[in-house]
Amino acid sequence: MNRLKEFFWLCAGVNNDILNKCPSESSKYVGIGATIFFTGVFAALAGGYALYTIFDSYWVAAIFGVIWGLMIFNLDRFIVSSMRKNGEPRQEWLSALPRLVLAIIISIVIAKPLELKIFEKEVEAEISHMIQEDLAAQEQTVKQRFNETRTRLNEEILSLKNEISEKASKRDELRKIAQEEADGTGGSKQRNAGPIYQIKKADADRVEAELQTLVATNNEQINEKENALAQLDIQEKSAFGEMKESQLTGLASRIEALDRLTKKSSAIWAAHWFIMLLFLAVETAPIFVKIISQRGPYDFVLKKEEYGFEAAYYEDLAKVNSVIKKRSARLTQDEIDYVQNRLGLSLEKT
Fold first, then answer.
1. Per-residue pLDDT at 183
2. What pLDDT was estimated at residue 233?
3. Side-chain-facing half-sphere of 22: CA atoms under 13 Å
4. For the segment 7-36, what is each residue's pLDDT rounded down to a tens digit?
5. Which one, out of 39, 127, 239, 313, has a CA that is 20 to 30 A from the CA of 156?
């Protein structure tokens, strides 16, 4: 039990010799150390899972997870151990503000991969939906690429067929007029096959010849365009066959899927914030404990120890200053003696 307690003291970054003199502070620093330790464990799990989604390797994920957890553990330990209680709440809060910002960033980084693991089934389902959306977008792009040509060919085919249809309608109308002239139901109203009928029949025959020529020409063009359409359909099917499902298995895709889920579902949105706030509370708890707790025996003894080193530093500094002043004074006197000696020599020469 004592080893576990000392281990958590180590996690809290305290001086064991000083803390042994202050038994009433033991539980507080055991709690702070345990919080820092488990934050490091959560960071290791989160980092390992994040790397597993990238490399699909248990060994790489485990190694990086341990390194990431140790880094976060060391950073949290440094943040807490570097805080000092000096009896001035305003200054303590100001000094803790950068540490709180850093703790918030760490909690967000830790929480996100664990959220992905907690909502893994929902995220996988959303990723499948994203893959289908991507396939539909690819299909739409392929269709748009071929639709313009297909529409143009169909319009040209329709135009050629309409030309034939119009010419056939004109021929049928001229035949009808010639027939009415022949049987006396129209035109001159005389029942005979006279010269007027011959003229009208010649017009009908002329349009018939034009129709046959037009049919031959247009049908050839229609066949060419229909063949082009058939080739276009083959190319489109080939393009559809070349479409591939997006490999949305990376960390960024999972984060995007989770973001979409939080926007779609109010329950997942609430759970997302609960998890984030939980890790935020765990990460910032040691800092708040240090800030809101009263100065205890450990703080006074630590201040005394640190002040002893500070006082010794200033004593040594004062001694060095004293030596420098004495040397400066001695050098100044030597210079005066030198000048006097030089002046004396000058007077003797004169």
1. 61
2. 82
3. 21
4. 888 888 887 777 777 877 888 888 888 888
5. 239
Cα distance between residue 116 and residue 127, in whole Å: 12
What is the DSSP-derived secondary structure letter of residue 82?
A: T
DSSP class of 23: G
Dist. CA 234–CA 222, nearest whole Å: 18
What secondary structure letter does DSSP report for 24? G
Q: Looking at the chain, list the stretches that DSSP marks H as alpha helix, in order from N- to C-terminal side.
A: 2-12, 16-20, 26-55, 58-81, 89-118, 120-183, 195-242, 251-264, 266-292, 297-349
Q: Could you tell me which of 161, 160, 187, 193 has the C-alpha nearest to residue 174?
A: 187
CB count in 10 Å sphere of residue 325: 10
C-alpha dist (Å) from residue 306 to 38, 45, 171, 309: 30, 38, 116, 5
Burial class (CB within 10 angstroms; exposed 0-12, middle 13-18, buried 19+) of 43: buried
Q: CA–CA separation, 97 vs 109, rounded Å?
A: 19
Q: Which of 250, 270, 164 is nearest to 212 (CA)?
A: 164
In the numeric block, the tokens 């005394």 are attached to 304
